[in-house]
Each structure stands twice: as C-alpha cells, then as structure tokens.
C-alpha cells in the first residue's frame, strides 16, 4: 500500500516576469517500507519535493495523499500535527541545539508531545543507545564529530516512532566513513519497517537505497528500482 501518493503536483514560483515550475506535473507513489532516494542536479526541485512530502510546504496544485488522506484540505495546525505524528526529519546540518546535551536534544520532540520528564530522558537514552551513542548522552553537539551529531539527529527523528523518515542530504557534511555508518543506520531503520525517503546528489549514497527517483527541471525523469533489491 502507498504511504505517499502525489498526483500531478505543481509548485510554481512567480518572481516578476520569471515563472519557475519547481515541481512540474510530478506523480509518484511510495509504498510502506520503501527506501527511496531522490537525486538530481542543483535546482532540479529536490528540496521543494521534500518540503511538500514533509508537509512543510503546500503545492500550487495537484493532490498529495499521505496515508490515504489528501492533505490539501488540512489547516496549518492539522498539517503540523500530521507531520509531528508521522514524519521524522533529518537534515544536512543536523539542526541540533548546541547548548543542550545529546540526551536533551533527542528528548525535545517529547516536550511538545506532552510526555513527562522522567520518561523523556529514559526514552532519549534508549534512542541514543540504539544509534551507538549510549556513552555520549551527556555530551553537547559541539563536542561531537559530524557523524556523531548526525546519529543524535537520527535518534531525535525516531523518538516519536514515526512511520516515515525524511532526510535532506543527510551525508552532505560527512566524510566517507561516517556517511557509510549513517547509511547503515538508515538501512537498519528500514529493515525495522520505517519508510525512508532521502534527498542526495551523491550516486554512491543513492545506490545504497532500494529505489532512485531522478529529477530534472522540476520533472521526475526516472524511477529506478535497484536490481539487488527487486
Ligand atoms: P534543488 O533542491 O534540487 O536544488 P529546489 O527545490 O531548491 O532544487 O529548487 C527548484 C527550483 O525552484 C529552482 O529553480 C529554485 O531557484 C526555485 N525555487 C525554490 N524555492 C523557491 C522560492 N521560495 N522562491 C522562488 N524560487 C524558488
Ligand atoms: P538545498 O541545498 O537543500 O538544495 P537550496 O539552496 O536549493 O537548498 O534552497 C534553500 C532554501 O531556499 C529552500 O528552502 C528553498 O525553497 C529556498 N530557495 C531556493 N531557491 C530560491 C529562490 N530562487 N528564491 C527564494 N528561495 C529559494
């Protein structure tokens, strides 16, 4: 079953005389448990696609069904609630709070979810152990390597047990070794049933996913299933 279904999505920006179709008639389905990467050159629409898939932005036209429900009719509040319940985000720049410990960074989404402090800290500790940082829970991000910071960010994305993980260039600021470690964590999450969607412009990274969508000039120009996964 499709967890994500885009039907004829357009995202159009008008700036003076210039009209840019950041997304141009994009239709695609992503099934439960898929591990998909979105590739394409700079300016091809990858970020715009992620913003719409992640309910951070709305399309100009077309339908977006998330878990079978069309999200266009949602109010901003409903959109935010849906996002918080269903999607965990991972960013290129980690987006961690530098003055909070790893444990407090990971626990933060649970504050908004109304969970008490003791449970928050316990769950954050467990999540950090799951990404191999059980011995670093008191460290601040500033005391960590890029790969460790990204593992903290992944633990934070998983803390609410979302069905979908969306990652925008998650290995973009990492060396090769850390990139592969991060990809191993995404693979493990996917093996555990999470649907993972990731933007990357690195072919080596995309080749570790099960399906590669390629964009150019706002259009989806190729949809390739990796042979070793079919
Ligand atoms: P990518 O992530 O592949 O680099 P983007 O989705 O960021 O591509 O951008 C796709 C196109 O849409 C580009 O031409 C970009 O300049 C344009 N674009 C993206 N966001 C905006 C915006 N907020 N206002 C105007 N143009 C935008
Ligand atoms: P990325 O490195 O992820 O591709 P971009 O540099 O393409 O990011 O875009 C960063 C942010 O700026 C995005 O949120 C995008 O929507 C916005 N943006 C991109 N191009 C433009 C533009 N021409 N005008 C205004 N905003 C833009």
TrEMBL record:
Gene Ontology cellular component annotations, sorted alphabetically: membrane protein complex; plasma membrane
Keyword Protease (UniProt): no
Top-level taxon of origin: Bacteria
Keyword presence, Ribosomal protein: no
ABC transporter domain residues: 4-230
Molecular functions (GO terms): ATP binding; ATP hydrolysis activity; transmembrane transporter activity
Protein name from the UniProt record: ATP-binding cassette domain-containing protein
The organism of origin for this protein: Phascolarctobacterium faecium
InterPro entries in alphabetical order: AAA+_ATPase, ABC_transporter-like_ATP-bd, ABC_transporter-like_CS, ABC_transpr_LolD-like, MacB-like_ATP-bd, P-loop_NTPase
Keyword annotations: ATP-binding, Nucleotide-binding, Transport
Native organism taxonomy: Bacteria, Bacillati, Bacillota, Negativicutes, Acidaminococcales
